[in-house]
Amino acid sequence: MKMSKLFVTTLRENPADAEVVSHQLLVRAGFIRRLTSGIYSYLPLMWRVLKKVETIVREEMDLAGAQELLMPILQPADIWRESGRWEVYGKELMRLKDRHDRECCLGPTHEEVITTLAKNEVKTYKKLPINLYQIQNKFRDEIRPRFGLLRGREFIMKDAYSFHTSHECLLKEYDNMAGAYTRIFKRCGLETRMVQSDSGAIGGSVSHEFMVLTLTDSGESDVLYCDTCDYAANSNRAESILLDAITDGGFSKSEITDTPGTTTIEDLAKFLNIAPSAICKSMVYIVDSTPVLAMIRGDQAVEEIKLLNACAGNEIRIADDEEVKELLQKSGLNTVKGFIGPSGLKCKIIADHSIKELKNFVVGCNQTDKHLTGANWGVDIEMPENTADIRLAQKGDCCPVCQGHLLITKGIEVGNIFQLGTKYSDKMNALYQDENGQEKPFIMGCYGIGVSRTASAAVESFHDKDGIIWPASIAPYHVVVIPVNIKDEEQATVAENIYQDLCRVGIEAILDDRADRAGVKFKDADLIGFPFRVTCGKTLSEGMIELKIRKTGEVIKVPVDDVAFTLQELVKKAINTDVPEPAGKI
């Protein structure tokens, strides 16, 4: 391809709506263009990257024994109602009606479709296990699309679904997919970490995410990982052992104590001259339109997804002042937020495990400007019946596996795997006959990879002040050939010959035949991120060209006759063995 013909326009300034590096660079380098909020056109350079990611995914999925198919993006509401997700999935589900007034949705995922397909096609255990996958556009109507391709509304995804006769068989395929994913991301030039995660709207008992760990604020999720062992988990799933803290308030007796104006834990601790860890904090949340009181140690924070799961809910948010007031009135209590406690409150109460060790502690007593001090469980106040881990694990906590210390970083999710069990087959009556002729529900697994997210995560991981540094395996082109002065006959001829030689030996090359200044061509080459740059300039008088390696910035001189062979070796090595190093170490 010649640069003069390539459908690309580069920009020197970052777009105003681009918050993260990958979004900025993919727009500036001419890879994507925004059509509307969260929806992008993939221009030729980006499409080449995406097709390469897809090829790697297909090769590894096929080697792992999965079979590719393609399912419809438009899905009838009936099968979503059958699974029970039509009412609970949320506003991310893009709902619409066809001309016959039949309700449909644009598929954000395909559990219902694949389960329906398996129910109709797989009748006997003899056809199991089986793993089916597709690569297709998905649509989720995100409330606030951001970060370019990292959180758009329309995106490209590989999703696979496996069907089994036993949990042991599912576990074997789960491990098989985990291995395939590790190979896929390594081949894409990405170092990933398999972390425990929440199953969310997909469901299932066990799930893991494959995260690209970053040292910047561009990651969408917090990942906690151990400094000693391999433990790692998303913040909404991470467990930890609390460090020792003062959990005895030191009060000699229990009594109602005046605490005027102390509506925060910090104010209350300072007023009573105690540690925040000796306070039992009470917070009101709204779970599926119903108030829930969460109780946790004063120096800890509630992890909302954990609380949501403990309530078996679908949506959660902190209660506003009016909702808190309404709950108090319903309970016959006359107080305000900041002094709320569990006694007499008419709502579900979920207590974090961290409050169990409290002694002589402080807790709200539902009287304005007052708290109960010196409280003890079973004496002055009853321990709530419902207890769960609803605590946000924090940096410095002890690892739950080896008791090392947890560290925290940002991560970008590029893949996920779920053990669905019979969540969908039970509800959708998807049955097979076992060896005894009895009907049983399929045991299912689900495995997703964000194709467009993977490409964006690569940019997020590998860039510098000049632009993108593509891993060679997914770069749009391997080499750009630049004649410094296209009007110089020798430079133009040598550049053309090198370009033709590279194409003949199978190296994907661009010839920058534009009449622009050399500086413009060099800037575009670095911005777009070609792994190798061949410069035909003054060194031709020595029979040499300059070869720049984008990743390291190293420039070497190579005889003109050796360029094709040299690049063959460099490109082969970069694709097969050379995984780029991130900007820093985790």
Describe the fold and architecture.
With 586 residues, this protein is an alpha+beta fold. It has three domains: 50-238 and 407-461, BirA Bifunctional Protein, domain 2; 255-388, YbaK protein; 470-576, Anticodon-binding domain (Rossmann fold, 3-Layer(aba) Sandwich). It is built from 13 helices and 31 strands. Strands 3, 7, 8, 9, 10, 11, 12, 21 and 24 form a nine-stranded mixed beta sheet that branches. Strands 13, 14, 15, 16, 17, 18, 19 and 20 form an eight-stranded mixed beta sheet that branches. Strands 28-27-29-30-31 form a five-stranded mixed beta sheet, sandwiched between helices. Helix 2 (44-63) packs antiparallel against helix 5 (167-187). The two termini are 38 Å apart.
Q: Summary?
A:
The protein is an alpha+beta fold.
Query: CATH class of the largest domain, anyone?
Result: Alpha Beta
The CATH H-level superfamily of the largest domain is: Bira Bifunctional Protein, Domain 2
**Helix run count:** 13
Average pLDDT reading: 92
CATH topology of the largest domain: BirA Bifunctional Protein, domain 2
